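Q: I'm writing up a methods section and want to include an example of the input and output format. Could you take the sequence below and give the corresponding predicted structure tokens, formatted cleanly so I can copy it straight into the document?
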Amino acid sequence: MNNQDFKKLLTVNDIGKKFNGISVLESINFTINEGEIVGILGDNGAGKSTLIKVLCGVIEPDSGFLEWQGAKVVFQSKNDSTRLGIETIFQDNALVDSMSVARNIFLNREITTRYGFLSHKKMVESSAEVLSKMTGIKGIESTEKLVGELSGGQKQAVAIARALYFKNKIILLDEPTSALSVRATDALFENLKDLRNKNFSSVIVTHDIYNAFNVCDRFIVLSKGRIVLMKQRNLVTLEELIKHVSRA
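A: Here is the clean output for your methods example:
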């Protein structure tokens, strides 16, 4: 894939962030284009999760700025990035255990009737449909089941289903496969590839180089808060990725 053929969605310009005087991100520059899967790799402490939180508005950078489709933007919360078209899946899933699977998928974006009442039936049916497409997920017999009764992997599946249902232009995934089985991981990647074919983009933050190498179109490797490698999939080897990550 030649990313020059695709429209720029999110551009990161010279982003920097410090905590207690310690630099966590420094001079970060890259662009997420339409219709690609980007892997952000690095060892623990490389700055991957902090970067994701900056991209979605959970953390404000100390320097630099973001652009959305060429226009400068300032995210003051995750809601700001969501409204623009960025869906974020964190490691902790941000789900409500006391609510059903269906209510979690449509949380803050509920389907309502023409009279403003919640359309419970429609949310149950729609959430069941999107979960059924994730064929590697087992054990969720009903989307009326409480999320608190699910396993870690099943909760991750619900968070991913929420992102897939709303099909925002970019999906940010922070360690999405950490609690998933091999089959569920394969199903997730197939869904991301399908979205890519429809010109949606995904950013996968992971320390799992092998999984990333199998699905990503482009790689950004972080080490101690800096980008040390940024290459297209067809211009880099697995061994080269491993070498740069291991230098962290």
